[in-house]
# Entry
Amino acid sequence: MARKTKEEAQETRSAILDAAVRVFAVKGMAHSSLADIAQEAGVTRGAIYWHFANKEDLLNTLWDQVLQLYAPLAQASESRGEPDPLGKLKALYLSFFTGLVEDQRQQQLFRILFDDSNRNKETDAIRQRHLVCRQERFIGLQTVLRNARDRGQLSKDTDIHLGAVAVLSFIHGMIANWVMTPELFDIKQQGPMLIDALIQMLQSGVIARSS
# Structure
């Protein structure tokens, strides 16, 4: 019986997260309330407070789920023992693009991050957390590019810091443009070509250390 209760609690938690995404998509983060989410999920506000302290806690949980999806590939791409660091980096981003297209939770979370009209204290908190994640990813990208340089995938003159800036800016721009204007391009179908172009740019030697 206890196991069934635990499973039911997990189902309720998941239903609340799904409902939150739907409500945020319709009303925007700033104009959504926990009462709105409870009504959409078919639960009481008390049920929401059992699982989440507030909207910020809901957003953080959604963000954690996204990070957990891609953590294994990100860690693999940053491994010093990885024989194909650029290939693993490409696989990471293509996996992310596919997930972004297919997962409404991810799309809505990134819309909240990029849409200034949604700004309030909860979205400011998640933006700050996203900034920390980007800083951590920047450090990880330098590890990937340094490993790629050491393995001959990049020129010995490649500026690792500027290369990481280029990758982070390129990927962030792709995500922001697709999330806010998805009709602009097909990130799932055209993403591989764009990532190949990014890697070719890195390998061309244009981002080199000044002598």
